[in-house]
Amino acid sequence: MASTTAPNTPETSRRDFLYIATGVVAAVGAAAAAWPFIDQMNPASSVLALASIEADISAVQPGQQVVLQWRGHPLFVRRRTPKEIAEARAVPVSELPDPLARNANLPEDAPATDQNREIKSEWLILVGVCTHLGCTPTVSTPQAPQGEYGGWLCHCHGSQYDTAGRIRKGPAPQNLAVPVYAFLSDTRIKVG
Amino acid sequence: MSGHSTYVPKTAFEKWLDVRLPILRFANDTLMTYPTPKNLNIWYTFGGILAFCLGVQIVTGIVLAMHYVPNANMAFDSVENIMRNVNYGWLMRYMHANGASMFFLAVYIHIFRGLYYGSYKAPREMIWILGVVIYILMMATAFFGYVLPWGQMSFWGATVITNLFSSLDQLVPHLGSAITTWLWGDFAVGDPTLNRFFSLHYLLPFIIAGVVGLHIWALHVPGNNNPLGIDVKGPQDTVPFHPYYTVKDVFYLSLFVLVFAFLVFYEPNFVGNPDNYTPANPIVTPPDIVPEWYLLPFYAMLRSVPQKLVGVLVLFGALATLVFIPWLDSSKVRSNRFRPMMKLFFWLFLVDCIMLGYIGSQSADASVTLGGADLPLVWFARLGTLYYYAFFWLLMPLIGLIERPKPLPDGIGKPVLAPAE
Amino acid sequence: MRFALPLGLALGVAFCAPAFAQAMNTDARPVKDVHWSFEGPFGMYDQAALQRGFQIYKEVCSTCHSLNRVEFHTLSEPGGPSFTDAQMKAIAAGYQIPAGPNDKGETTDASGNPLTRAGTPADHFPPPFPNENAARTANNGALPPDLSLVAKSLPGGPQRIYSILTGFGEKPPAWFHVMENKYYNPYFDGWNISMPPPLTDGSVTYSDGTPNTLDQEAHDVVTFLMWAAEPKMEERKEMGFGVMIFLLALSGLLYLSYRKVWKDAH
After folding, report:
1. How many residue pairs bridge chain A and chain B with CB atoms within 8 Å of each other?
2. Is A49's CB within 8 Å of C122's CB?
């Protein structure tokens, strides 16, 4: 005998409640089950272990740069001469195409003074990725000057950075980024 | 039965779509209103379970392929990277490995159900043959997949099975070696072999999916068989697939997933072989080379024959035999419920398969001690292989002629003597 | 007919019975009955045991055995020995890892030793020998296996490793020949094992004051090796508990729905 129940009888609502409850539980389960499939594409713990590096920078001479690798990018570690420091400090922020410090250790609105681009004035630690389209800029040395500002020149499209890594000329919109870093000692830094 | 469609598009969008690509009509006719015999039991839920298993294997497999490296120097390490570093990588790997075992468990239940209820008999022969094709594709896929972790068992299992083809040298000189070299891409199983097995392992499941589509299409032409083995006579014998069998299939699926989850989370290495946690070493052969459990019965058959070529023919013949079943069984009665003699031999056949599987898991020179005598297991394997062949080629044709089946009920809708309402 | 199935199953079970052992059989003895904190569906790793086991690996086993697949950062991740971040970095830094060429392109230092650098969390445990040949030369031709997966690759698992570690010291039967450069251990297949007894009472001194008996040491190092092979075990069992509860609830709801739907049929 087929049961014919009118829409609003108690039996209908009891039956519907069971089906709705089952459906909701199943849907919650499906969503919970989907999460691992999505999360597995996030960086694995072996990749995250490389997210921080420590480096000994004692071998870098004034006027020299060493390039490390950090999170797949080049990391510029530059030891500045007093002349380079003075040049960077002489520039008013108002003259800079990008007035923000772009320093992950400071608030986002910090201005791009030279002091806001480093922790110790002698050492410049920058992410060596041109903010235009991602090429690696070439460092300017007294023996082989690159660009007009004594910092870096990006050969891809001509962006020029000064001795504080700030964009001065060319298509790059932002100063070279300063990553999260700290000095563990006078000769040892930790980045990331 | 494939009758006329009962779908009526309601919304404007449904009407628009129905004229251009009647996919909702198709879904309605095949999954919702499709008339299904009302007396299907638990053993009929395994088709849906198998579709779920295929989906799980494909999804987990694609995820694993994002991290796996099919190179002989890196494959084992990449699997360990998945297990140790990839977020939930251990879960993906254990689901895929144990999912393969659950897939075969379900397919064996599905096949034995078809044998028991005569689902292979006219007019369902094509469903059965397509099913055999799917089964063989599954075995090939599983074989390729097991090689990928590049453990000891991966490597040596691949060596043993690909070496089967070298037996063809006895038929045509150099043919077998030419084929094995072609399969390997090298002078032995090596990096080229691994790479191509990865490619084929990724490909075959999608071919399986296509054949499954044909399998279900072939099913929907005559409609489902049922435990009584008698034809559907009219609407009194059927219920719409939805909600009756959607809810039943999903319920039994949830029980199946419970078993699957228990394996994955609490005994993930129970079905596997410890030797595969040792990286492949072409110089050192493990003491006992064994395939995964679902291939063991055929492995026992292969080893039961001392002559290599004949052993290979016995193995492939056992699979080929399955294709002919619809024409081997002479009985006019479908379901073993009404075939007392065939039922006995069916259960013996099941025991035979389990026995062959056990023998396949033991070393080739193992023996069992019965009544003080040491009996080599290979004798039982030979008897078992003989019974396997006899069951299909002798018993199926003969029993249908000589047994006296029980009287069949009048119809599905009235299997007991209670009067209709 | 009715007994066909039970008879068949009985026959099948009879075949599963093991054959009797013959005399002069050098098959490994059955494993010792030993229990672990991590056994069973709710078993977890004993963190103190993991740390002590790590100490044993470091002070004893790592002389010969590598642990190639374990990365230092896992030492401080949940589900393991749970060292602090600082402790883990100190452990890593205590190891010298083969380093790449220096700025001049050299790969060895002035004395001809390969260049090394201090370990970082991302590094794997470095092997005691640079390659297989060196390992075999140092060990009378035997190759000490890597231990990262031994708890899963050795049949018998942790029970077997424990039995082997505590199975030395017995007097072999008179008819048994102990081969040259090998040791008698009836828990190892063939009874001749290339490894000398690695542990005795007092092999290490535990800083937490746990008695350093052979049994304790074996117990701790095997616990550590189990973690090295299955670092995700705790996460797996914890997730499993939630999943099983959920599936039981869902199955219950589905069963009720199934009965409700079918009540109206026939």
Report:
1. 35
2. yes
**Residue B157 three-state SS:** helix
B375 vs C: CB within 8 A:
no
What does DSSP assign to residue B336?
Answer: G
Quick one: tokens of A67? Answer: 């390039």
Q: Is the ipTM of this complex over 0.95?
A: no
Angle at B107 between CA B114 and CA B204, to 5 degrees: 125
Q: What amino acid occupies position B410? A: D
Provide the pLDDT for residue C76: 95
Angle at B284 (CA atoms; ends B279, B286), nearest 5 degrees: 80
For residue C52, give how far its alpha carbon lies from the nearest alpha carbon of chain B (Å). 22
The runs of H, that is alpha helices, within B119-226 are 125-147, 152-163, 175-184, 191-220
Cis geometry, peptide bond prior to residue C114 (ω within 30 degrees of 0): no
| pLDDT tens, position by position, C120-138 | 899 999 999 999 999 999 9
Contacts for A176 with CB less than 8 Å, ≥ 6 apart: A76, A102, A126, A127, A128, A129, A130, A131, A137, A152, A161, A165, A166, A167
- Render C169-202 in DSSP notation, one character per residue: TPPPPTT--PPTT-EE-TTSTTSEESS-----TT
Q: How many other β-carbons are positioned within 10 Å of the β-carbon of residue B8?
A: 10
> A56-83, pLDDT tens digit by residue?
898 899 989 999 999 989 999 999 999 9
Shortest distance, CA A142 to any CA of chain B (angstroms): 46
Known active-site residue A155: no
- Tell me if chain B has a CB within 8 Å of the CB of A3: no
Q: Cα dihedral angle (A35, A40, A42, A48), rounded to 10 degrees? A: 130
B118: amino acid identity, one letter: G
**Which helix (H) or strand (E) covers residue B348, if one does?**
helix B340-361
The Cα–Cα gap between B149 and C190 comes to: 29
Spell out the per-residue pLDDT of chain B, length 421, in tens: 456 788 999 999 999 999 999 999 999 999 999 999 999 999 999 999 999 999 999 999 999 999 999 999 999 999 999 999 999 999 999 999 999 999 999 999 999 999 999 999 999 999 999 999 999 999 999 999 999 999 999 999 999 999 999 988 888 999 999 999 999 999 999 999 999 999 999 999 999 999 999 999 999 999 999 999 999 999 999 999 999 999 999 999 999 999 999 999 999 999 999 999 999 999 999 988 999 999 999 999 999 999 999 999 999 999 999 999 999 999 999 999 999 999 999 999 999 999 999 999 999 889 998 888 899 999 999 999 999 999 999 999 999 999 999 999 988 876 455 455 4
For C58, half-sphere exposure in the C-beta direction (CA atoms, 13 angstrom radius) is 15
Which one, of A192, A57, A175, lies nearest residue A123 by Cα? A57
**Subunit contact A49:C121, Cβ cutoff 8 A:** yes
Indicate which residue of A73, A132, A155, A157 is catalytic: A157
Q: Which residues of A touch C (CB under 8 A)?
A: 2-3, 15, 18-19, 21-22, 25-26, 29, 32, 45-46, 48-50, 52-54
Report the sign of the C-alpha dihedral through residues A99, A104, A109, A111, in that order: negative
User: What six digits make up the tokens of B295?
Assistant: 């291939």
d(CA C196, CA C139): 10
Q: Nearest residue of A to residue C69 by CA position?
A: A46
Taking a C-beta distance cutoff of 8 angstroms, is the pair C109, C80 a contact?
no
Q: What is the pTM of this model?
A: 0.89
Give the relative orientation of helices B125-147 and B89-117 as an angle to the nearest 10 degrees: 150
| Distance separating alpha carbons of residues B112 and B119, to the nearest angstrom | 10
Residue pair A117/A166 in contact (Cβ under 8 Å)? The answer is yes
DSSP assignment letter at A69: E
